[in-house]
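Following the same procedure, the fold was encoded as tokens, giving this record:
***
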Amino acid sequence: MMDRWFNNATFSKLLALLISILLWAMVHLDSGTTSSGITTAYDNKTIKDVAVQAAGLNDNYVLTGMSTDRVTLEVRGKRSLLTSFFTDDYKVTVDLTNMKSGTETLPLRTDLPSGVEVVSINPSMVTVTVEEKKTEAFNVNIATNGDPAAGMRLGTPTSDPAEVHVTLAESRLEAVASVRGTVDVSGAKENVTERKVRLRAYDKNGQEIEEAVIEPATVSIEVPVVQGYKTLPIRVSYTGDLPDGLVLASVKPSVTEASVYAPSAVLSELTGNVTATLNLSTLTEAGTRQVQANLTVPEGAGSVYPAAIELEVTVAPDGAVTTSQRTIENVPIQINGAAEAGGVTIVTPESQTLSVSVNGPEDLVSELTNDDIALVADVAGLEPGQHNVSLQVTLPKYISLTEEDTPLSATVQVQDSSEPTVTTPEGDTGESSTGESGESNGGEVQETLPPDGAGEGNATEGGQDTGQQGSEGSPNNTEETNQP
């Protein structure tokens, strides 16, 4: 029978009408009154902490202050709508379109979802401060994080570009102390290159200034990763001879120190100086000129920086150079041949040093130090007992002893090799002496260091002719000696 009803056209029309009436009643339940007199449900709702957004501000200005950035809204609407919205759906703005530099109190505006109206806003006004933007150039600083591989050291980081522009409110721009980026160099064995680093602005307390606009925001950096280095003084040594009739008046290096790069094990033992060699035979006439001299890399080191220096060399006719005399105090006496002789003690002078009077060109003499002079007592072959030993003297070229200071001597006590060894005086390095004052330096870099050619090897050479001093006592007059 049910099938017959559904197949009946009149019954189907009536059923459709009834369903339509029911749907209409459900839709209009909350909008006014129905035929049965039901009231629509409206409600109020309080929304807290609604963010205040600035709108319309000219790009040349920046908002630096606002009395409040959160407000409380009371809104009204259908209950079904109010429950379907979140806090972020309610917008509150302050219009800064006509705002210039200064402080003003402006009304707040609302932008609410459809079907919702504002009842109240607290506060309804806000005081804002606007400043003009300023831009200033700052140098880029690159900081490193971590340590390079063992035995390696970091050079000075560089960036491209080296300068960037920071834009801020004028009052805040004064607070910028630096613009810095950080790069990780952990375990680096070679130069860190082609890295992009994001920059940030910091105040003098190291706090980031987050609102700073940096252009460009990133830079390319390079961090040199090199072997460790030690700074040593530069001494000038000489080869060759000037032509007859000419003398060396002065030699002034453009720099006085060089950085020696080497493994840590070499650096810990590295002392002495870096030698710049000047070939005097290339100077054929009087005058002042600039001469380039290469620096010799110390044994075991990898490189030296700079690799070469400029020397201002003045050559004058013999007799045209002003000479002067000077006494150099506390020049240490070194022992040569101590191991062969057994133990050796310097008896006199008790200080184990001597004052040495020298003369020569005024400029050269004025720069002399006691490390530029070597006094060596050769005790090889001496029998046990006390001996007065003439000292072999090594001086820089064109510097000589004054007549009243020759000869120089010291009294030494030589022990029998079978007797207990007496500690040799400070500065005695025995047969391994190279002109350095023993091991007292402990591997530290000294302000002044002994001249090349001092010690057992060169000192012995210097005494093979006559035991005299200065350039006359050096073989062929070409030994490496230091500029004072």
User: Anything to note?
Assistant: The longest strand covers residues 125-145. Residues 9-27 form the longest helix (19 residues). The chain is about 10% helix and 45% strand. The two ends are 132 Å apart (CA to CA).
